[in-house]
Design goal:
single chain, mainly alpha, two-stranded antiparallel ribbon
Length: 180
């Protein structure tokens, strides 16, 4: 709800500014804009609900129209998601490295498949809301294609794939966003 409310307030502020109805950009320029962006970033990294992530991405888009100090925060978010994706993708390749699942902050373990799906989903949502160059994800198309190729090879040989259907769909959507 908080992400939807934030998106609504920022959309209204942007509309008022663009419509000549006032200068709402002063509300979130400078340090307040950066603080709002940091709060959205924290929520974006912790929120498991895709709908809330969509609202947060839209709120980021409106915040970027109102505050230049939000841009480095969005770029940092995209860079950290990109780094996570690139670090996790070898675990799902045809010859994964031998390493244990990733530890969570609560001490339990996250399977690499789930962690990669979470990172890819967040990258896809960011890429839908922003110019792909802002998300810095154009350079990893070969990794995405490699994972999809591993899935196709496993399917053609009748084996189970480490790349599940949901992850494959997310990767295809992300690939379309980066190539168009």
């Amino acid at each position: 709800r908080a992400a939807a409310f934030c998106r609504h307030v920022l959309r209204h502020s942007t509309a008022r500014q663009n419509g000549g109805g006032g200068r709402c950009d002063g509300l979130v320029s400078g340090p307040p804009g950066e603080a709002a962006a940091q709060a959205l970033k924290t929520m974006f990294l912790r929120q498991p609900d895709p709908e809330a992530l969509e609202h947060a991405a839209e709120a980021f888009a409106y915040l970027l129209d109102l505050s230049g100090s939000a841009r480095p925060v969005v770029q940092d978010l995209a860079c950290s998601l990109h780094t996570s994706f690139m670090e996790l993708s070898p675990y799902l390749s045809a010859e994964p490295p031998s390493s244990p699942p990733l530890p969570r902050s609560d001490g339990s373990e996250v399977p690499p498949h789930d962690a990669l799906l979470a990172a890819a989903t967040r990258l896809r949502i960011l890429a839908k809301a922003f110019d792909v160059s802002l998300c810095n994800i154009q350079g990893f198309d070969a990794t995405v294609l490699g994972l999809l190729d591993d899935r196709a090879n496993a399917a053609s040989s009748g084996q189970d794939s480490t790349v599940g259907a949901q992850l494959a769909t997310t990767l295809l959507e992300l690939l379309v966003l980066t190539l168009t």
